[in-house]
Design brief:
By secondary structure, the chain is an alpha+beta fold. Helices cover 28% and strands 9% of the residues. The longest helix has 27 residues.
């Protein structure tokens, strides 16, 4: 999406927000390529950013409360001062970049699934994501989800000690 198209959508959305939906139009940026976009200070309250590529976008001081960020890629996005939707977190400094969106979706690296699905994956499904690295990290990922969203269930296979031949 070019800068002029994005600016037009953001301007219409600003009118929409300020008029409480009476005029303008709600930003629909589903699946949009916003990689590296300058969205500093943008009012994106309630915007649809589902599946948008926001890698490297500058979202400093942007208002994203109520925005649909499910499946959005926020790796490397500048989020300083951004108003994020409730239960939305970007966790840095882990083996994989982690984003929790609306308390419903969790992205670890390139894998994006519901929290419920993450808590039920089989050992084979986790291994298929990134081999032994993913298997080793998986309990930590669940610890992170528990910390931000409250204690949840864990698959039974995590309670079984590993054998050395695996």
């Amino acid at each position: 999406m070019n800068t002029d198209e994005l600016r037009k959508i953001l301007d219409e959305h600003k009118v929409y927000v300020e008029s409480f939906g009476e005029s303008g139009s709600k930003a629909d940026l589903r699946g949009a390529n916003l990689r590296g976009a300058d969205l500093r200070g943008a009012d994106l309250r309630g915007a649809n950013l589902r599946g948008a590529d926001l890698r490297g976008a500058d979202l400093r001081d942007a208002d994203l409360r109520g925005a649909d960020l499910r499946g959005a890629d926020l790796r490397g996005a500048g989020l300083r001062g951004a108003g994020l939707p409730d239960h939305t977190y970007v966790i840095m400094g882990e083996k994989y970049p982690i984003t929790i969106t609306n308390g419903e979706y969790l992205r670890a690296g390139c894998q994006n699934h519901t929290i419920e699905d993450w808590r039920k994956f089989t050992k084979i499904e986790i291994a298929e994501m990134d081999g032994k690295t993913a298997l080793k990290f998986y309990p930590r990922l669940l610890d992170i989800a528990d910390f931000y969203l409250g204690k949840g269930e864990r698959p039974e296979w995590l309670n079984v000690p590993d054998s050395e031949e695996e």
